Structures are given as structure tokens and as C-alpha cells.
Amino acid sequence: MGEEELENIPSKLTTPSMNLDKVKDDVDDLVLQVVTEFENANDSAAPAQGTQDSSSSSAKSTIFWAYFLAIPVVFIYGVATRMQFTYGALYGRDGLHLSNAAAILATGFTCAGRATAPLLVVQYLKTPHLFMLLNATTLVGCIGMLLVPVIGGTENFDKNGVLKEGLPTPGLETILFYYLVMYIQGLAEVLTGWDILMKFETRHRTPDEQQNVLCMSFVAIASGSAAAFYLSSWLYEIHGLYGCAYLGIAIGVLNIVFPVLYLTQRWGELSAWRNHNNEKRLQLTSKNSSFMKILHLDNLDSTNEEDDNEKVLGECKRDSIQNSSNTKKLKFVKSSSDFVIDDDSKTNSAFAHYLEPRNHYEYKQQLHHQTSKRISNNFQRLSSGDCSDMFPNCYKDLEPDEILRVFDPTVLLKHSKHIEWPSKFEKEIKVVRWFCILVLGLGVTMISAQFAVYTLYLVDVWNVTPIYAGASMAVGEIAGMFTLLTSILMRKITSKVQKGKTTAQASKSDSTFDLRSLFRYLSLLLHIPSQFVICCALSVIPLALLGFLKPPTNIDDIVITGISSYPPGLVVILVSGAFIGLVNCVMHSTT
């Protein structure tokens, strides 16, 4: 809206019930609000002595703590939450003389604890003491494992904590206590909290830096899982229950020390940042905030284009206050044309229409762009109109970036609840959510089934030691780690190649199909989530054969001296276990 239109506002106000003085007062109030916002922003951004050194030190600190979370903390988490799968069911069957079903139920209790933990993390992440309590459950649970033989009677157990041969199953209180400590160990599944904290530490970093931190966390969790599978199976084979319990106590101590070190140093900054963002969102979504008033100043939401009175500056502002339906949600405006101020002619001119968004991510990007444009344009209209004399000269010729530093919609756009999604994208978001739920549900069912029965199956049917199961699963985790790193490397190489192509070359390559393009399409199988589906297929097929694979009749007489002496069926089963570990690693990256 140009200066002439602003001057003609009183002549357009023909509605009898409209109070001209009130409209003028509303506009004046808005101008005062805007000037105050800029002054407050300038005061808070005023450089102090040593600011640059402090900023540089803070940047180094955040990247250090990001890698601290991604490497040692996540590695210890991986060990703490995986070791129960190799010895849990095995000890229940051999150590407590339970049936196979009752022994496997111990692993079920661990999984129940893992399912409970994320809900507690979401509920209590704001309280560091309760968050630390979840990290301490590994130590508590493993100390409880040492008490199982005490409750069952130490005279009934040998030096490895295993019930002596010929004795019946211990009493119900011993079995229930064993289930309880397995459940408690499962409560250490707090990766959701560490992911949130890693995102907090890398919030100001470039996408490449964020990707590097995530890559290191993938490596750490895969390495931790592999170490847990191998060490726990090896220790159980040699020292029984006590070997695994002492390993868990050592890991449990580290699972307390590292989080305490991080939380004591960084929790204050996290809390201040979160509270500031919450206060800012509350301020921006207020009906009387200057942000919402400037955003709705152009009245692009108006559908009655014939009513010129509805497009007056004061009425638009007042409607945006009274009409609360869209004040807390940012809405993409589909108008016949969007208007900007032409600096040369000071007249309205239209800029290009937005393309139809293909998904909710593109819609969110377009909404961010349009909202930023509206705020910038409306501010320029306000500063160049009748109220321009109320603006200090330094605020009249501000660049859009400078305006958006004060009236930034990013804080709201980071939360879906502040976006008014079109119906088709609401459905898309629901589909994505349910896809993740189903993929996780089916994937976890497959992986947990293997974790629960794999060790028992190898020991009972194929007459091998538990270390074979642990080594097989450890190899799968390491293979999954390298698969992920290969996928990320290929994506970076592909991105660099595509950036180096001209538009003509890109269109030509997309329109032709030759042998090279065939290999290019096949390489997509190594990209996430395609590789997840491929890995599932490669693991389910050999697992489906387990029921048909039978060991040789003389399996008890076979002496395994090397890989060459493995029965063929055992090789297939060990490979299937490795593929399950690979799927487990890939699934963590896709979610």
C-alpha cells in the first residue's frame, strides 16, 4: 500500500459504525509497538566487550558437547541397553531352570521397560533428576541381578550364580524378582532424550556439521551394541550371571557419570533456551502481539475482494485482532496476486505465484517464505505511510533480513501445532506417522523375536556356546554401521555430481536410459529407506528357513575347529543373525 492510499484511508471509511479516531489510535499503537520491539532487539543485541571471544568460545563449547553426547554417552547407552538380550533368556532357562517360554518372558520384561522409558523421557525431560533416574536403572538392575541367588538361597547356586544341577525351579518370589530387575534394566532406553539434546547442541550448526554429529552417533550406537553382544555372551560363557552383572555395574556407573557431567554443565543453558522459546511463542501467538498485527495488516485472508472497506489499513489490523481463528496458526494465503512495494515507482506490483507443493515439507517452506514476505512488505507499508513521522529514520529503510530478525516466524514454524495444514497434508502427516509406527512395530517384532530366541536356539539345537550368537549379532551391527556410512558417502558424492551438472545436462541424463542409468537406479537400493526394506528381505528369508534347517544327527559329536568345520545349516543361521543386526542398525537411522 503506497503513501497515496494511506492518505486516502479516511475517505474510504464509509461504514457508519466505524470510529475513525479508534482506527487512527489502533495504527498509532501498532507503530509504537513496532518501534519498541526494534529498540528492545537493538538493546539485547548491543555488543559488549569480549562478545566475539565469548561467542567463539560458546561455539566451540556446543560442538564439544555435541560430540560428547554422540560418542561416549551414546556408546555407553548402546552397551547398557543391549547386553540383556544375550544372557537374559539363557540365564532364565539354564540358571533358574525355567521353561523356554518362561525364560523368554524375561526378555519380554526388558522390552516392556524399553517401551515404558520413552514415555517417561517425554514426561520428565524437563526435570534433570528424574531423567538421571532413568539412566541409573542399568546400575540398579545389575545390582539386583547379584541379589537373585541371594533371594533363591546362596546354597542352591554355584560360583557363577547358576542353580545347581538336580534342584527344582526356585520359588515364585525369586522368579518375579528376576523379571523385575530385567524390567528395570529396560528403563535405560533414553535415546530419545539424547537425540533431543544433540539437536539442541547443533541448532546453530550447518547441515553438514549436524550430519557429521549424527553419523558419529550411528557409529557409537552400533559399536556399543556390538560390544554388548560380544562381551556379555563371552562373559556369560566364562563367569555366568556374575560376569554379566559386573559388566552391567561398570557400564551402569559410566551411564551415570557421563550424563551427570553433561547435565551439570549444560542443563542451565538448555533450560534458559527452552524457556525463552516458550515465552517467545506465547508472545508471538498472542492476538495483541505486534507480530500478528503486522502479519495480518495486508488482510490477504479476506475473501470478499469487492468490499474495499475491508482492505483499509486500520480495519485490517482490527479484524486481525478480533478474529482469533487464524492468530495462533500460520496459514498459507492463496491470493490472485501477492503484492510488494516497488521501490522505484512506489506502486503495487505482483511477484511470481507459488508452485503447488508436492508434500508437507515443501508446503512448510513456502509458508515460511510467504509469511516472511508478508511481514517485510507490511512493515514497509507501515513505515512509509501516514505514520512515517513516528518512525525513527534508522527504521525506515531497513532490509528484509533486518526486519525478520525482530519479527521472525521461524519459532512458530518449527512446531506443527502453529501451522494450519491443508487437509491433504494433514492426511500425509498422519500417513507418515502411522508408517513410522508400523515400521517400528513390525521391525521391532522381528528383531526382538530374534533377540529373545536366537541364543537359546543356537545353544539348544546346534550345541554351540553363547559366544556364537553374540559374535553373529555383533557382526551384524558393525555391518549395519558400514552400510549406513556407505549410504551417506554415496549421497554426498551424488549431491556433488548433481551440483556440477548444468540444467541441460541434468534434463538430458533424466530423459535417457542406458546401462549407466541402470546402475544409477540400482544404487538407490543403498539409500535410506530403500536399504531398510532390502535388509528386511535379506534377513527374513533366512530366518524363515530356520524351521526347516535341522542339524546333523551327530551334532553332539562334531568338533568345531574352524569356519571350514561349520555345518552348512549353522552358517546360514549365523548369517541370518548378522542380517538381523544389520536391520536393527539401519532401523535406528531411519527413525
Distance between the termini: 47 Å
Strand content: under 5%
| Uncertain stretches | 1-23, 47-54, 300-327, 336-352, 509-519
Radius of gyration: 32 Å
Shape: elongated
Total of DSSP H or I helical runs spanning 4+ residues: 22
Structural class: mainly alpha
Instruction: Report helical residue fraction.
Output: 55-70%
Order of helices and strands: HHHHHHHHHHHHHEEHHHHHHHHH
Main beta sheet, described? 2 strands, antiparallel
Strand line-up in the sheet with most strands: 1-2
What do the pLDDT scores average to? 76
Give the strand tally: 2
Q: What can you tell me about this protein's structure?
A:
With 591 residues, this protein is mostly helical. 70% of the residues lie in helices and 1% in strands. The chain is built from 22 helices and 2 strands. The chain has helices spanning 3-7, 9-12, 20-44, 51-82, 84-95, 100-124, 128-135, 137-152, 172-186, 191-201, 207-284, 290-295, 313-322, 360-383, 400-406, 410-413, 423-461, 466-500, 503-511, 515-522, 530-544, 568-590, and strands spanning 339-341, 348-350. The protein has a two-stranded antiparallel sheet with strand order 1-2. β1 (339-341) and β2 (348-350) form a beta hairpin. α17 (423-461) runs antiparallel to α18 (466-500). The protein is elongated, with a radius of gyration of 32 Å. Mean pLDDT is 76; it is low at 1-23, 47-54, 300-327, 336-352 and 509-519.
Task: Offer a concise description of the structure.
The chain has 591 residues and is mainly α. It has 22 helices and 2 strands. The longest helix has 78 residues, at 207-284.
